[in-house]
Amino acid sequence: MEINEVPQDSLDYKDRDKLKKLVYAVDKDGKYTGIGSVGWEAENIATRQAWDAIEEELAETEQKVKAGELSPIAWFMQKKLMDIALLAQYMDKWQWQVRRHMKPPVFARLNPATLEKYAATFGISVKELTDFGK
Q1: What's the per-residue H, E or C state across 60-126?
Q2: Quick one: which of 23, 60, 72, 93 is 20 to 30 A from 112 by CA?
Q3: Residues with Cβ within 8 Å of residue 91, at least 6 apart in sequence
Q4: What are phi and psi of 40, to 5 degrees?
Q5: What stretch(es) of the chain map to CATH 1.10.260.40?
Q6: For residues 79 and 59, is the Cβ–Cβ distance under 8 A?
């Protein structure tokens, strides 16, 4: 594709219109060169659908946290687009331990050092972690 053919279909969603990604196109001399693109329509539709699904899952998890079915760890894990395996690696814990920490009674008994490590992993304060859903 030539430089003037690089898609520039802006996506007015999640501040995405401010982001550009690097794509390669052929310049007037026939050489590949990098150029910024805000995307193209098909990609933008897929991105919007993916984020809508993530936001729906987050809302469901938030309700479960508020209902006392899950600890806030589950919500922050989803918010950071992590899974149990990745979170366990960051926490230096076994996956079964992280799953266990997602149970509200177990979460309530976590020691301050563990809460601090979860908070640091999520980029939040311990207060934000422990007060979420209340």
Answers
A1: HHHHHHHCCCCCHHHHHHHHCCCCHHHHHHHHCCCHHHHHHHCCHHHHHCCCHHHHHHHHHHHCCCH
A2: 60
A3: 97, 98, 114, 117, 118, 121
A4: -135, 160
A5: 54-131
A6: no
pLDDT score, position 4:
66
Q: Contact 39/9 with Cβ under 8 angstroms?
A: yes
Per-residue pLDDT of 111-132, as tens digits, reads 999 999 999 999 999 999 999 9
Instruction: Select from 1.10.260.40, 3.30.1360.120, 2.60.40.1260, 1.10.1530.10 the CATH code of 54-131.
Output: 1.10.260.40
